[in-house]
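User: I'm curious whether this sequence folds into something compact or stays loose and floppy. Could you predict its structure so I can see for myself?
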Amino acid sequence: MAAMCSTKGFLSFLILWLMHRKKTCICGEELAKELEKRRGVKPSPGTIYPALGELKRKKLIVGKREGRKVSYCLTKKGEREFAKAFTRFRKMFGDIFGS
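Assistant: Here's the prediction. I'll summarize afterward.
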């Protein structure tokens, strides 16, 4: 039986939230592990990296290469967009969680 709802539509929001929360750059593998904690299933690179690419294209994050590893950080624009999205999210779903 297929799940009634998925977090696929919230992936970009979750990525921005994790970066905002960490206050530091984060690599794709670390993002996958953090997302696994919340979803119970580790997302594949084919799920995470397209989302990261879209966030980079929108200039919400920037990638910093460290050898073979790339760490991603929120830009100032990304922080502003996250704050707006977070406010909308709370308005839509806050009463569900009692906040």
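Summary: The beta strands are 26-27, 61-66, 69-74. The first strand starts at residue 26 and ends at 27.
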